[in-house]
Specification:
mainly alpha
Length: 120
């Protein structure tokens, strides 16, 4: 259990214990005390249901926020990777062009050397 849920459980238990102790220590007849306990338990139940709904909403929003944040980071990384890939692909194409050019030059030189050796 997280610290928040431990705190919430302690808060609820403390509120219930305080309400019960307050009602039981008050000078009233058994019938009045039972009536007060019934009334307070109904109020307390309503408060608990409201707090539970709030917690469920917060968890739901947290999940949505976390998912949105994940998606944003994912698309950000994806965009950066696309840019890096394009940059690398461009450099590879440049190198390929240079290699083809140098290969063509070497072929020309080789033909010249071959022609010179055949003349001699």
């Amino acid at each position: 259990m997280s610290n928040e849920s431990n705190f919430l459980a302690g808060l609820v238990i403390g509120a219930v214990a305080g309400a019960v102790a307050g009602i039981l220590s008050a000078p009233a007849s058994g019938k009045e005390t039972r009536s007060k306990i019934t009334e307070r338990s109904g109020e307390f139940r309503g408060e608990l249901e409201s707090k539970f709904e709030d917690i469920v909403d917060k968890i739901s929003n947290l999940e949505e926020d976390s998912m949105d944040e994940f998606k944003n980071k994912f698309y950000d990384v994806k965009g950066k990777l696309k840019k890096q890939y394009a940059n690398v692909a461009s450099k590879v194409e440049d190198l390929e062009g240079e290699l083809k050019s140098k290969y063509a030059e070497l072929q020309k030189e080789a033909k010249k050397m071959d022609a010179k050796t055949q003349e001699a």
